[in-house]
Amino acid sequence: MVIMNGKEIEQPPSTSPDDIEPGRLRVFGVCHIVFGGLGLMNVVGGVAMQFFQRLWTFTPPNGPDKLQEIQNEMYRDLTAYTWVTITMSLIVGVLILRAGIALTKRRQSSLRLSNIYVLSSLIAKIVSVVLFLVVAMPVIEEAVTAMLEESSAALPGWVGGLQVFIAVIGVISFLFSTIYPLCALLMLNKPQVREYLARHGR
Asked: Is 178:125 a contact under the CB 8 Å cutoff?
């Protein structure tokens, strides 16, 4: 604001490249908030599924049949794995949501918060893949094999390759899930973003 002839005249906004807000700040800020909200919704859904799963499990008056018993045992064996993944999703969801809000408000801490989210997300994804391959996959494979054997049907040929198929799906899912965090890491750590936040960050 400049005072001229006793009147306050507002200065036009600076057109210097250093003073122009990088559009990626707002874009990734909104994306962080959207993905964070969706992630927390999935966490709520996962917790609800764990609690309602017992209510949905039907037990006949004379006790569960063999197939139902195998399925119930699989769910019990996967309980710890499921709660670990839910907890990691909750932590990552809170971190990305917090970073998104900071980015949209152009906080000086927004880049640091976003990088913390990226690092936590990548670590959580690696841990999830390892747990899936080491803990969940053997349980699922054992349950599927047991149910097929109980049905007195000849085991189809694909059962032998089930482990490989599940492992491939897990690795492909991991690779796709790392695209957004890596894009955020690369795009938000550009010099112009750092310089803008250093000058104009709140």
From this structure: yes
- Say if CB 24 and CB 187 are below 8 A apart: yes
Average pLDDT rounded to a whole number, residues 77-100: 94
Supply the pTM of this predicted model.
0.78
Q: What is the dihedral of CA 83, 48, 77, 66, to 10 degrees?
A: 180
State the Cα–Cα distance between residues 65 and 167, nearest whole angstrom: 30
Name the nearest CA neighbour of 93 among 24, 47, 25, 26: 47
| Structure tokens, 48 | 């609800």
The residue ranking higher by pLDDT, 174 or 63, is 174
DSSP the chain: -EEETTEEEPPPPP--GGGSPPHHHHHHHHHHHHHHHHHHHHHHHHHHHHHHHHHH----TT---HHHHHHHHHHHHTHHHHHHHHHHHHHHHHHHHHHHHHHHTT-TTHHHHHHHHHHHHHHHHHHHHHHIIIIIHHHHHHHHHHHHHHTTPPPPGGGTTHHHHHHHHHHHHHHHHTHHHHHHHHHHTSHHHHHHHHHH--
pLDDT at 8 > cutoff 60: no
State the pLDDT confidence band at 19, using cuts at 50, 70 and 90.
low
Phi, psi of 106 (to 5 degrees): 55, 45
